[in-house]
Design a protein that fits this description.
There is one protein chain. This protein has a 4-stranded antiparallel sheet with strand order 1-2-3-4. Strands 5-6-7 form a 3-stranded antiparallel sheet. Strand 5 and strand 6 form a beta hairpin. By secondary structure, it is mainly α. The chain is globular and about 80 Å long. The site of carboxymethyl coenzyme *A has 20 residues, from helix 17.
């Protein structure tokens, strides 16, 4: 490849043909080579499984630099938002592009608060699930079922309809999450309370019962708010890309978010926070750590240290740095000091951070290593961890979906493939097959 200022020349060594590919400038980070004409001009597809070098879209929402360990929402460093802001203020920033004035924030918070109730008909959906259904399974189903409601506001070509759908999704997610939990433990659903904060309301809907008063712990409320800010968006990760791809066909927005929840569930993505606790359970005792580290390093063993490593961060995950401090504070205030799991986690963190295998591969603890520990200290059951992630990430999903649908040249997403199957062959009748 040769190079000039605003393009790259690609020469096909098979036949000497060459094309100039324009370079699209990034506001920060690497520029991108526009390969839109590649196939048309040279007759090749480009091949990049796992999208290691491919930008699937342009976006003005989130910027991250994995080498430096840097994350920004709409240009604001995550450290500043974590220290000074709150979840709904950051949600406003993501949806509308700017931090709100006091008046705008009050209005936005009021709208989200007043959309938090669920249609009573949804109770039937919850009841349809078996009592031991995983809350993520319930969430995928119930959020998808919202596509069957709200016909007044699902004309996705109408910006106001898109905005109402976004508000509904952000507002109803805690209610759906809490109802999924209540179903799994056989307790009555608790209705949202408009006098409470976003995370206070979630805690109340999860842990209050009709027969006694429930007091929201301000440490828990604040910790959840912080975790939610950190999880709002993370550019084109698997679940966000799934939401964009589903949305690119013009699908119903609630169905698109359900597809994002499904993609988030996997242990390599949002399911990692649950997998961390399951792994700690499996390790069981500090004395077993070396044996599990050996397994993690063994190429022939599929075991990996859950909560370590990241596709993009090859430095400390900046969210992990923020949440690590919170994790230590929460454990000191709310954690059961006698719970050996906390000691085990902190010891594993220390040992892995000093181990050559992890140092050489730049495998640092990621945000989910700590979020799971905080959730446990807050009394949130393990199978609800990924649900918590989904509540926060809904803001990112709807902001990305709105950004994409709002583009004037928006097109359906349709990746190509490198076909490696049979060439054409003739059908053989069943009695003649060997
Ligand atoms: N434990 C042990 N070895 C690991 C781990 C791990 N957790 N992660 C990566 N490696 C090794 C891997 O075996 C490979 O070694 P080698 O070069 O000798 O073949 C090397 O490190 C590079 O790994 P990779 O699989 O090429 O990296 P990736 O970018 O494809 O995978 C990852 C990233 C997050 C899927 C992976 O690190 C992982 O499976 N981590 C555990 C699951 C986890 O915590 N996921 C949550 C990510 S943060 C939340 C989110 O944003 O969704």
């Amino acid at each position: 490849m040769g190079n000039d200022k605003d393009s790259i020349t690609v020469i096909d060594n098979r036949n000497g043909r060459q094309i100039e590919l324009p370079i699209r400038k990034a506001a920060q980070g690497p520029d991108a080579v526009d390969i839109g004409r590649f196939f048309h001009e040279l007759g090749y597809f480009t091949y990049d499984p796992g999208f290691l070098s491919t930008a699937s879209c342009h976006s003005a929402l989130t910027y991250l630099d994995g080498t430096q360990g840097m994350l920004q929402y709409r240009g604001y460093p995550i450290e500043q938002l974590a220290e000074h802001s709150n979840f709904l203020e950051v949600a406003h920033l993501m949806l509308y592009g700017e931090l709100p004035s006091r008046e705008e924030l009050d209005k936005f918070s009021g709208i989200i608060t007043h959309h938090s109730m669920l249609n009573e008909a949804l109770k039937g959906f919850f009841r349809g699930f078996y009592h031991d259904a995983h809350p993520m399974a319930i969430m995928v189903g119930v959020v998808g079922s919202l596509s069957a409601f709200y016909h007044d506001s699902t004309d996705i070509s109408n910006p106001r309809h898109r905005e109402i759908a976004a508000h509904r999704m952000i507002a109803k997610m805690p209610s759906i999450a809490a109802a999924s939990y209540k179903h799994s433990v056989g307790e009555p659903q608790v209705y949202p309370d408009n006098s409470l904060s976003y995370t206070g309301n979630l805690l109340n809907m999860m842990f209050a019962v009709p027969c006694e008063t429930y007091e929201i712990d301000p440490v828990a409320e604040k910790a959840l708010d912080l975790i939610f800010i950190l999880h709002i968006d993370h550019e084109q990760n698997a679940s966000t890309s799934t939401v964009r791809l589903a949305g690119s066909s013009g699908a119903n927005p609630f169905a698109c978010i359900a597809s994002g929840i499904a993609a988030l569930w996997g242990p390599a993505h949002g399911g990692a926070n649950e997998a961390v606790l399951n792994m700690l359970d499996q390790i069981g005792d500090v004395k077993n750590i070396p044996a599990f580290l050996d397994r993690a390093k063994d190429r022939h063993d599929p075991f990996r240290l859950m909560g370590f490593g990241h596709r993009v961060y090859k430095n400390y995950d900046p969210r992990a740095r923020i949440i690590r401090q919170m994790c230590h504070d929460v454990l000191a205030r709310l954690g059961d000091a006698s719970d050996p799991m906390f000691e085990l986690a902190l010891r594993l963190e220390e040992i892995a951070l000093n181990d050559d295998y992890f140092i050489q591969r730049k495998l640092y603890p990621n945000v989910d290593f700590y979020s799971g520990l905080i959730y446990k200290a807050l009394g949130i059951p393990t199978n609800m961890f990924t649900v918590m992630f989904a509540i926060a990430r809904t803001v990112g999903w709807v902001a990305q979906w709105m950004e994409m649908i709002g583009e004037h040249d928006q097109r359906i997403g349709r990746p190509r493939q490198l076909y490696v199957g049979h060439r054409q062959r003739d059908y053989v009748p069943i009695e003649q097959r060997g």
